[in-house]
Amino acid sequence: MKANYSTEERFLLLGFSDWPSLQPVLFALVLLCYLLTLTGNSVLVLLTVRDPRLHTPMYYFLCHLALVDAGFTTSVVPPLLANLRGPALWLPRSHCMAQLCASLALGSAECVLLAVMALDRAAAVCRPLRYAGLASPRLCRALASASWLGGLTNAVAQTALLAERPLCGPHLLDHFICELPALLKLACGGDGDTTENQMFAARVVILLLPSAVILASYGAVARAVCCMRSSGGRRRAVGTCGSHLTSVCLFYGSAIYTYLQPAQRYNQARGKFVSLFYTVVTPALNPLIYTLRNKEVKGAARRLLWSLGRGQAVQ
Q: Rounded CA gap, 185 and 162, in Å?
């Protein structure tokens, strides 16, 4: 039976306190990933904005993904580092709800944006002659705006539903952030089943609907590739889609595991490490995934370095 309702308006984030010997290692790894995330995504945005050759729909959406990743990991990492470095971290309920809303908004925006990027790649591979007309600047702006708006709408709805639920004391949150499944473990009283069903339905929509779009897009890509007679065309198509598919698998695999299971079955110890992967590791890997074998981005980086070196030589 649940404990009495708590009047305490703060949460104690336990983080990785069960593994004290692991905390210094995690601190170093998380800090490294955070620096890589900020550096890699900032460079990607800078190159996309400065280089006219990257002013295409694919890089336009990639620029938005870089902004989402930088914001997403920033909403998580600072309190995580404080938790790993110092004493137990107490968060007021208002701060906890704000962090939850921010991370949900950015994470949900990434879900939608990855689906939009899959549609863009399917259009480029399956309709190459009509691609310029299909992926117009106006449509690209509308799709990017829909990604941000969809993420914000989902976050506000989920946070508002959770805020209506009383939480049982003591307010010990067995996580390193205020994440929805961990907070639902503390929920009690009120019309619990109805609220949790509504929240679960919202998570299903924001995760499975974009997943269906991605699967349909890559199904169309696979059919188009099979019909190609040129091996060079196949290689270009696979190269266009391979990096995005890797990013999708990394993000969606861990996010679906975390959010699409009932609160009663949520394993908090395992959930912390899964959350660490999609909130910290994946945003750090994305710039590498998208640029490691990308000739256009490498060329843009060389041109930027050359122009900077030339400017210093003139001075």
A: 11
Cis peptide before 170 (omega within 30 of 0): yes
pLDDT of amino acid 55: 92
pLDDT digits (tens, 9 = 90+) for 127-173: 888 888 889 999 999 999 999 999 999 999 999 988 888 777 677 88
Are 124 and 58 in contact, with CB atoms under 8 Å apart? Answer: yes
Tally of domains in the chain: 1
Q: Specify whether the CB–CB gap between 151 and 109 falls below 8 A.
A: yes
Q: Which SS3 state, helix, strand or coil, does residue 92 take?
A: strand
CA distances from 265 to 181, 185, 207 (A): 10, 10, 19
Domain containing 41: what range? Answer: 10-308
Tell if the pTM clears 0.85, that is, is over it.
Answer: yes
Residue 2 within any structural domain of the chain = no
Instruction: Report helix angle 231-259 to 192-227, nearest 10.
Output: 170
Which DSSP letter does residue 255 get? H
- Which CATH number goes with the domain that contains 82? 1.20.1070.10
10-residue stretch averages of pLDDT, the chain, 315 residues long: 51 84 92 96 93 91 96 93 81 88 95 96 89 91 96 93 79 85 76 74 90 94 83 74 88 88 74 89 91 80 77 53
> Residue 4 in 3-state DSSP?
coil
